[in-house]
Amino acid sequence: MQKILLDLLGISERRSILWRSPCKVCQGFLLWRTLLGVDAVTRYFDGLVQYGEGYDHRIHFSGSVETGDISITIGAVTMEDNGTYACSVRLRDDPPREQNPKSVLQLLLVAPSKPECKILGTAQYGETINLTCVSHEGSPTPTYTWKSFNVQNEPRVLPHTQGQQITLKNISADTSGFYICTSTNVVGTEFCNMTVSVVPPSMNIALYAGIIGGVVAAIVVIGIIAYCCCCRESKEEDYEMTLLAGFDNISTPEQHSREQEDRNEPSVRRMPPRQESTGEDVENA
């Protein structure tokens, strides 16, 4: 088995891959397939070429099969193309025998993608949190290392510096700072960083105070609206009563005529009753 490392500079740059097989053939039948695959990658028989599912327009023979070069080139490679490929050859004049396919191990080299960093847990005093770092692409599988700096941007020692996840226990204000994860393989390196800010549990009081303040403000607003509505209804009732009183002061034509007649009648002055003199008054006079 030949082990061939195939360099791919980033998964987005779909480079072609070339196998150089030691197999030689003049005329006959040859087959390329993956050891884990059911279908063939490609077949060749006396000038007729067939392609397996998913390989059409992606694979072709690099040289001249008639002259013995049965190397193939696969384009637009993906991580799914990783694996071991076997080449089987049967010449026209070969006697019946058990086939002994030549195999080639294809190892696609892909630089790590930018890792995704997360904080799992609540960053409060006394809690335990996990910092995770994952590159979703990369071949071979990337390794992960961690570094940390305090809030003054000074490096500090971590209890664990390897792996996709590190655990920080019984965290405090000293845990706050910057954490950098580096994802590395033989092709390249990528990193991500995150900021951890540890707060005391009492910080939740501010949240509750904000909620209570919002509720109180809503109650005050509702009270003001209700008061304005009541004042408006009171003013409307006063206006209606004033309007009704005005209607009561308006006299009908008959009432107006009688009032006019009463004003035209001469006023009769009443004299005090005259007292008659008695005989005693005359005698006294």
Q: What do you see in this structure?
A:
Pfam families: Ig_3, V-set. This is Glycoprotein A33. Keywords: Disulfide bond, Immunoglobulin domain, Membrane, Signal, Transmembrane, Transmembrane helix. It comes from Ficedula albicollis. One of its GO terms (cellular component) is plasma membrane. The protein is an alpha+beta fold and 285 residues long. Among the domains are: 103 residues, Immunoglobulin-like; 81 residues, Immunoglobulins (Immunoglobulin-like). 23% of the residues lie in helices and 32% in strands. The protein is built from three helices and 16 strands. The strands form four sheets. It has a six-stranded mixed sheet, with no helix packed on it. Strands 13-12-15-16 form a four-stranded antiparallel sheet, with no helix packed on it. Strands 2-7-6 form a three-stranded antiparallel sheet, with no helix packed on it.
CATH homologous superfamily grouping of the domain at 2-93 and 100-110: Immunoglobulins
Count the DSSP helices: 3
Measured between the Cα atoms of the first and last residue, the distance is 176 Å
Helix content: 10-25%
* Strand order of the biggest β-sheet: 1-9-8-3-4-5
Question: Which topology of the domain at 2-93 and 100-110 does CATH recognise?
Answer: Immunoglobulin-like
